[in-house]
Specification:
The protein is of the alpha+beta class and 162 residues long. Helix content is 31%, strand content 33%. It has helices spanning 2-7, 26-47, 69-78, 100-112; strands at 10-13, 20-23, 54-57, 60-63, 85-93, 123-130, 134-141, 144-152, 157-159.
């Protein structure tokens, strides 16, 4: 084993599999550290994707920022829903690890221009509105709408925005 290490430019000491290894070539060390840094940076950027600031409704880009109930009503009005009664308004946490249901919900949101990925593990306000024979749900994080859907009596979620 020791002879093998020296022929490769590596200084080995110790016995068995728990011996220490020192690399004589600094470039190998620098390259390894650089690769590790790039890997960490790529992982960080992938996890920190940004959510959209607008969605397209009837051919127009509509901002998702809402600072009060009037802004929420204005957004819903653009979607064709006016004067609805709030059934519930509560704080939820978007799960960090998604099961099949949340993965399907993410697909529904993406079809409308939303993205829940940046909000994994974060709190959100869930507002459910009564629309007669349907229920409309908005998720708001901070002052931004991050998800929206409609549920019929059968419980199947449909997109709010076509």
């Amino acid at each position: 084993m020791y002879h093998n290490c020296l022929s490769r430019g590596i200084n080995c000491s110790g016995d068995g599999m728990f011996g220490s290894v020192k690399v004589k070539n600094r470039w190998v060390t620098v390259f390894s550290l650089l690769c590790a840094a790039v890997f960490v940076a790529v992982c960080f950027l992938m996890l920190r994707s940004t959510a959209p600031d607008t969605v397209e409704i009837n051919g127009k880009d509509v901002p998702l920022g809402v600072s009060d109930d009037e802004d929420i009503s204005a957004f819903l009005s653009l979607c064709g829903y006016d004067d609805m009664q709030v059934l519930s308004d509560k704080e939820i946490t978007v799960p960090v690890i998604w099961n099949e249901v949340y993965a399907e919900y993410q697909e529904l949101q993406e079809s409308q221009g939303f993205d829940l990925v940046p909000y994994k593990g974060k709190s959100a306000r869930e507002i459910v509105f009564d629309c007669g024979d349907e229920y409309l749900t908005l998720l708001i994080s901070g002052e931004k709408i991050i998800a929206a859907h409609i549920n019929s009596d059968d419980g199947v979620a449909k997109p709010l925005i076509d």
